[in-house]
Amino acid sequence: MKTTSPASWIYAAVLCVWGCGSTAPPAFSGADDASPGPDDAGDPADATTAIAEGGGLFTSPDTGVTAVPSGDGSVALPSNFVATEHGGYALGPAVTTGGSDAGVYENPGTANCSLVTGVVRDFKDQPDDGNTGDPDFDTFSGFTPTTGLVKAALGTDQKPVYAGNCGPGTSFLSAGCLGGQMLTTQANYDEWYRYASGVNKPFLVYLEFVPNGGVYTFDSEEYFPLDGAGWGNNAMGDDGKTHNFGFTTEVHLAFAYKGGETFTFVGDDDVWAFIDHKLAVDLGGTHSAATGSVMLDTLSLTKGNTYALDIFNAERHPTGSHFRVDTNLSFTSCGIVPPDIPPK
Asked: What is the 8-class DSSP label of residue 140?
């Protein structure tokens, strides 16, 4: 969606879609790569090159290429990364090759690891290819987040569960659905974070965080990891360039709870964050940049225990795409990719 000015940030842990300052680089933990498939974009390579950086070891999804500074200059990124306002991102290989699942993938982390691995899935926007694209993408236009589109508990397969609200027949300014209809059917929604042949194309994605005043930040005001890949670029962005709109991002992390942590997500479009498998940030629907915050001390967590953090985003409407995370959580896993295709 087109962005508006973000609200003031909560200090400590923040999950958002905007910008901040930085300090010295952290010690990095890295990602191993799945085997590239025929849908790979550019040169996604192997994630085997280790680069000494700031006293730590950064394992890059690249192969011996020259590093370039990130947007804020605090970290030298491999050249296949897109440098952003803080940190950067890179598209990895296709999750599926020839219709077979890549299997469970994990980027095991050390304390405060900064290279996060997730999955992006490319969809055709509904107007694409003679109005034959996915009916949930570039169809609805809201102005404020729509809560209650997913259930409060994460599904047993680590995916959000469709709640059935704001579906077909919902009128504009309806109670609980001020933007009107936001979704079509459960069958269509269930494909957002699951591989569906001919409907979406899933890839690994790497998000590099950088230190920023006591937190780690990933901030991209032009978040387009699938440009030139998947179904191809399809719309003009607010930067005057053509981008690949219509995609979802899924990240599964784990952290050790110490007490006092907070995080905030600011972004568009749909954003859901689950902590300990319970919905903690609910910014559903198509909308301009919005803020969702949570103080972890209010969630009845036990200090010293490890908990899951599951994040789901959807970019469903041009012309902007923004994704930012600021966090002081101590991650023990920097990215798990669950199996995408049910076993036969």
From this structure: -
Tokens of 63: 């192969």
The encoded tokens of residue 104 equal 């469970």
What are the sequence ranges of the domains in the chain?
14-337
The count of other CB atoms within 10 Å of the CB of residue 266 is: 28
Q: Do the Cβ atoms of 82 and 213 come closer than 8 Å?
A: no
Percent of the chain with pLDDT over 90: 54
Question: Which H or E run includes 242?
Answer: strand 242-243
State mean pLDDT over 161-183. Answer: 96
Question: For residue 78, what are its two tokens?
Answer: 């491999």
Q: How far apart are CA 182 and CA 282, in angstroms?
A: 14
Cα–Cα distances (Å) from 132 to 105, 186, 188, 263, in that order, read 33, 19, 14, 38
Pairing of strands 200-208, 115-123: antiparallel
Contacts of 232 (CB under 8 A, 6+ apart): 244
Q: How many residues does the chain have?
A: 344
DSSP class of 35:
P
Residue pLDDT, tens place only, 207-260: 998 888 888 889 999 999 999 999 999 999 999 999 999 999 999 999 999 999
Question: What is the per-residue pLDDT across 104-141, written as a single tens digit (0 to 9) for each?
Answer: 566 776 555 788 999 999 999 999 989 999 999 999 99
Question: Is the preceding omega at residue 40 within 30 degrees of 0, hence cis?
Answer: no
